[in-house]
Structures are given as C-alpha cells and as structure tokens.
Design brief:
482 residues, alpha/beta, 7-stranded parallel sheet, 3-stranded parallel sheet, 19 helices, 14 strands, 45% helix
Length: 482
C-alpha cells in the first residue's frame, strides 16, 4: 500500500517479462530518488499466462516491494481473450493493447476521482503507445520507456523518415550484402542486420507508427548509458526532431530467489561453486562436448509454430539432445531449464556467456563483467550483436545475422554448425587468444563504467534527476493553468 505522495505517475509496461522487469526497476529508481513521487504500474495480463508465468511475475513484484509503488492487474473478459487467441502473432499484440484501453481509462478515473491525486504523466512501453490517447483524455503528457537500446531507437526514427518508395526499396535488400550508413553507427550496417520486423510488410507499418507516436511524447526514457553507446546517444540528444532523451541505465533486476524456484536456483549456484574459476540443440551439444570447456546450458522449449505462448520446460532432455550427451558431459557441464541469470553471471566460475543478445541480457552481462559470444535470434537482437562485435568490441561472433522470428521466413532458417559454435566458444574462453583477451579487458572496463554512471554524480543518475524535474514541472504547470 502506498503512503501519501504529492505526484503520481502511471506506468504501462508491455506484458513480456523482459519489458516488465526493466520497467519495474525504473519505477523503483524513481520512487527511491524522490519521496514526492508515487507510481502505479498497470500490468495487462495476457490470456495465455499460465501458473509458471504468473508466479514469475509475482516473484518480480515481491522483490520490487517499495513504499509508494503499487501494482494493479488488468484482465480482459473471456470473449476478448478468445478473440486474441484466434489472431496471428503480428496482429495480437496491437489488438491486445487496444482492448485494454478501457481498463486503463477506468482505473485512472478511479485514481483521480477523490481529487487528491495529481498525475504528472503516463510512462508507456514502446508497444503501448495507443495508451497515449488515454493520457490525453486526462490532460497529462506521455513519456515512452524504451526497453531496447539507443541505436535501435535511432534506427526506428531514421526508418520513419524514409519515403514509401525508399522504404519499399530497402525491404528488397534484406537478403543481400548491401550496407547502409545509419545515424548512431560509426561503421556501415549490413541490411541483413536490421531487425526483420522493420523490413517486413506485415510488421513494418506497425513499427513506423510507433516511431511516429514516440515523436509526440514529452520524453523518451532509454535503458542505456552514454559511455556504452556514445554515437547513438549523441545522435538522439542533438536531433531537434526527437523529444528529450533520458539515458537512465543500466537497469538491472537482481532476483531474490525467495519463491518456488529457490530450490532449483540454489542447486545451480551450488554446482557453480564447485567449478574452477573463470537439429540446433544437437549442434550446440556437439560443440560444447567438442570444446571441452565447462558449461551451464539453459534449454527452454520454444512455442509451437503459429501459437502464442511462453517458453516452457522439456519433460525429458534426452529427447532433444544427442544420445548419451548428458552422461558423457556430467563431470564438466549441467543442462538446466529456467536460470537465475544475473546470479549466474555474477558467479566467479563464469567466464563467458553465449547470448541471444537481448538488451536486458546484454546489460546484465556487461554489469557482471562477462564477455559474450553473440547468437541473435529475433526482434532487434541482430543489430545488438552487430553493435557489440563491430562497433564496441565487447563480444565475439558466433553468428550475427541468424534470424528466427515472426518477421523472417522460418522455412529458410540457416543451421549454425557445431564447428561455428565451437570456434566462437574457443575465442571467448581460451587463454592466449589476443582477440579474446582484448575483449575481456574492454568488458571489464565497461563493467566498471556501468556501476559509476548510476551512482550520485554519474551520467545516468543525473539524467534520472532531470527526468524527475520534468515530472514535477508538469504538475506545477498544470496547476497554474488550471
């Protein structure tokens, strides 16, 4: 329960766990910095969330328990849920957000009904920009919390400026070796590294409309920091056609394992304690076995083709791994399902991370000083991998242009061979490798910088302070004009 505060913010995250976790961390930062702030986070519950997903969310919210921070679940009726389940993936998310507009409207109306609540703004996820309409109804400004990085934000704004003819021409280059000069990048970017949804006719218009709506906001909060993405942040800050940008990261969610997964997490950490310092599944398994390096491998079951659901656990790993693999590697490796990722990356036995390059995972790995081998899968992960390897020199490459998402032709997905994976792991892990040692040094330096920027006097700390000032000015301006 929240105590009295003078200014209220309404946060509306996208329901995905990666979006929700960083949004909750942002909310915690704000209420921790200024006691005048109170935040209500409106969580839109997805119809396919089963007990596992719900418990993970509950665990996240329990660890985020703060004074002046409240979480409210919004649910749809059965008819709306059934309608969503029948939709294709490319349509379901936008419709899901629109269906929840009335839920948000009703709850905010309840909040302001007493006359004592002064709302300074809506902070919406990039996928929740339709909620800006609801904010406008209540006469308050909107901000976007952008959970990806500054380079992706810059690319979105750039793509939105292209003429229809230029955009269509670009989509024809997706499978070519063509390169583009893009704002925020020092090096030319191969077209094939661009997020597939940006260049897909089904998804492209949705992303361009999101970029257009973001230009209408009063500010964009980005989970990054200037020292990590200097070129991209500079492009955004100096662009007079972009709203004020607030780099506030890295926002890291440190999991408290006091939940139903605690026993499993403790077993994983105990196994790491005993280790010395620092189709596709079968190819990975062969590479791990061939490399001879100690490993902890998180394997999750992907959703069925065309079905909207969360990743799950395999009932029997022997069905998807090479025969005898678990027995042959039992002294050097462990295969698990769900993983307490930050705790694992923080462990002294971990010397490298084969990562899909999601932005939360990237920030967590850099925070913990663990170098990465990149293997992007979907969304913006390919461009994240390109940035890490070619722009920043903070990772080694397994693959940069691998794609397996809604916006790509999954019938043509390439096979990443055991040899390619083995080479990437060896580059990352083996001593005496000049490339690997240089990357480890850079990652260690970036780890130190990531911890400096979030404390008093750091760039992200100061950026958060400017954001709070803007929230407070909203209330003052509104009260004066009222």
């Amino acid at each position: 329960m929240k105590t009295t505060a003078t200014v209220e913010l309404v946060f509306i995250p996208s329901p995905g766990m990666s979006h929700l976790a960083s949004t909750v961390e942002m909310a915690k930062q704000l209420v921790g910095r200024d006691r005048r702030l109170s935040i209500t986070v409106l969580i839109m519950k997805r119809p396919f969330d089963k007990s596992k997903a719900s418990s993970s969310t509950q665990s996240l919210l329990l660890t985020a328990a703060e004074d002046r921070l409240e979480f409210v679940y919004l649910t749809l009726d059965e008819a709306a849920e059934a309608e969503l389940q029948s939709m294709s993936p490319e349509n379901s998310m936008s419709e899901f957000i629109k269906m929840n507009k009335q839920n948000v409207r009703d709850h905010v109306r309840k909040m302001v009904s007493t006359g004592s609540t002064r709302i300074a703004g809506f902070v919406v996820d990039m996928f929740c920009t339709p909620m800006m309409d609801v904010a406008a109804e209540f006469g308050v400004p909107s901000y976007v919390f952008f959970t990806a990085n500054a380079t992706v934000l810059g690319v979105m704004f750039h793509m939105e400026t292209l003429s229809p003819e230029e955009y269509v021409d670009l989509t024809e280059l997706l499978d070519s070796d063509a390169e583009l000069e893009l704002p925020g990048f020092v090096n030319p970017v191969p077209v094939k590294m661009l997020p597939a949804p940006f260049l897909d006719k089904k998804f492209g218009s949705m992303f361009m409309s999101i970029a257009k709506r973001m230009r209408e906001t009063k500010g964009i909060i980005v989970n990054t920091f200037e020292e990590l993405e200097p070129s991209a942040v500079r492009f955004l800050v100096e662009n007079d056609k972009v709203p004020p940008v607030y780099p506030v990261g890295p926002l890291i969610h440190f999991v408290n394992n006091k939940n139903e997964e605690e026993e499993e997490a403790m077993e994983i950490m105990k196994w790491l304690d005993d280790q010395p310092l620092s189709s596709v599944l079968k190819e990975i398994a062969q590479a791990l076995e061939r490399s001879g390096h100690r490993f902890l491998w998180s394997v999750r079951r992907t959703p069925q083709m065309g079905k909207i659901e969360l990743p799950g656990e395999y009932e029997d790993l022997n069905q998807v791994l090479p025969e005898g693999f678990l027995e042959r590697t039992m002294t050097i490796g462990r295969v698990i399902g769900w993983a307490p990722q930050v705790a694992i990356l923080s462990h002294k036995a971990v010397g490298g991370f084969v990562s899909h390059c999601g932005w939360n995972s990237t920030l967590e790995s850099l925070w913990c000083g663990v170098p990465m081998a990149t293997w992007p899968m979907y969304a913006e992960q390919q461009i994240n991998a390109f940035e890490l390897v070619r722009e920043l020199g903070l990772a080694v490459e397994i693959k940069l242009d691998y794609k397996k998402d809604f916006g790509s032709d999954n019938t043509k997905v390439m096979l990443v061979t055991a040899e390619e994976i083995d080479i990437g792991i060896r580059k990352l892990m083996e001593g005496g490798n000049a490339c690997g040692e240089e990357i480890k040094q850079r990652v260690n330096e970036m780890s130190k910088k990531s911890k400096v920027v979030v404390v008093e006097g750091g760039a992200s700390y100061n950026s958060t302070g400017l954001l709070i000032e803007d929230f407070m000015n909203n209330v003052h301006t509104h009260s004066m004009s009222g």
